[in-house]
Amino acid sequence: MIAITNLSKIYQIGDETVHALDHASLHVSEGEFVSIIGPSGSGKSTFLRCLNLLEMPTAGSVVFEGTDITDPHVNINKHRQRMGMVFVKPVLFSHLNIIENVMIGMMDLKGMNKENAYEKARTLLAKVGIADKAEAYPEQLSAGKKQLATIARAFSLDPEVLLLDEPTTNVDPIMKGGVETLIKDYAKLGNTVVIVSHEKELLNSVCDRIIYMKAGRIIEEGPKEKMINCPEHAEVKEFLELLLTS
Ligand code: ADP
Ligand code: MG
User: For residue 165, which atom of ligand 1 is closest to its CA?
Assistant: First the structure.
C-alpha cells in the first residue's frame, strides 16, 4: 500500500547539517499496524511528516497505492484525505468550537451534510471522552483535551491510512483508554495504521510490526514477536524490555 524508499531529510541549521531521516525504507501493507519506536530525536516524527509531505523529503520516494506522491505534479491534498494524521501538538481552528472543529472536515472534504456531521462528531467526542467540551473553544481546553479533539477529527474522515505521532502523549492516563479503544477498533476494521508510540497497551495488542529508529535510520524492523523476543540488536531488546516492563 505504501512503499517508502531511501527517504531522507536533511536540515541545515547554520553550519550544522542534521540528518533527521537517513535513507529510511519501508513497505506498509494494507491493514497493517506498524509501530515506530526509538529514542527521542531519532527521526520518528520527521519520518511520519515526510510520509504525507508535511515535510518535503530531501531525497527518496513515497509510493502510495502506485502513485509517487513526492512527484511535484501529484495533487497531494487528494492523498492526504486518504491518509489522516494526528500530531503531538494539536492543531485546531481557534475561532471554531470543538464540535465545529471536528465537523468541518466531514463537511468540506467529504461533502457530508451538517446534521450527519454533527451526529458523527458527537459520537466521536463521546468515544474519546470529551462530549462535555463540544461547545467549548480550543483555548479553554487543556493540552490533553485538545489532543483528544484532534484525534476525533482525524477519525471523522475515515482515512484508509492513519498516521499517528504520539497520540496519547499529553493525554491524562484515565482518558487514554478511550483513545486506545478507538485506535484498536479502527485497526480491527482492516485499516492501516502507522503510529509513533511507546504505549504498552497498543504494542501488546493490535501492533503487527515494530520499527526501531535511531539517528534517522531504521536500525531494525520486523514482526512484533520477533522484535520483542529475539531482535538482532541488543539495544532493541533493551529498549523494548524497558518499555514493556515499565
Ligand atoms: P523524534 O520524533 O524521534 O523525537 P524528530 O523527527 O522530531 O525525532 O527529530 C529528528 C532530528 O531532526 C532531531 O535531531 C531534531 O532536532 C531534528 N529536527 C526535527 N525537525 C526539525 C526542524 N524543523 N528543523 C531543524 N531540525 C529539526
Ligand atoms: Mg517526535
Answer: 2
C-alpha of residue 93 to centroid of ligand 2, in Å: 22
Instruction: Determine the average pLDDT of the residues in 185-200.
Output: 93
Which ligand 1 atom minimizes the distance to the CA of 47? 6
pTM of the model: 0.92
Ligand index nearest the alpha carbon of residue 20: 1
**According to the model, what pLDDT value does residue 204 have?**
93
DSSP H helical ranges for the chain: 44-51, 76-80, 98-108, 114-128, 143-156, 173-188, 200-204, 224-229, 234-245
Q: What type of residue is 189? A: L
For 115-129, write each residue's pLDDT tens digit: 999 999 999 999 999
Output the pLDDT for position 77: 79
Query: Residues whose CB is under 5 A from ligand 2 (ion)?
Result: 44-45
Note whether 183 and 148 are within 8 A (CB). no
Query: Is 168 a pocket residue for ligand 1 (Cβ < 6 Å)?
Result: no
Q: Write out the DSSP string of 38-86.
A: -STTSSHHHHHHHHTTSS--SEEEEEETTEETTSTTS-HHHHHTTEEEE
pLDDT tens digits for 120-173? Answer: 999 999 999 999 999 999 999 999 999 999 999 989 988 889 999 999 988 988
Q: Ligand 1: which of 45, 46, 51 to mutate, judged by most atoms within 8 Å of the beta carbon? A: 46
How many Å lie between the centroid of ligand 2 and the Cα of residue 2?
21
Q: What single DSSP character describes residue 221?
A: E
User: With 0-12 CB in 10 A as exposed, 13-18 as middle and 19+ as buried, what is 229?
Assistant: exposed
Tell me the percentage of the chain whose pLDDT exceeds 90: 80
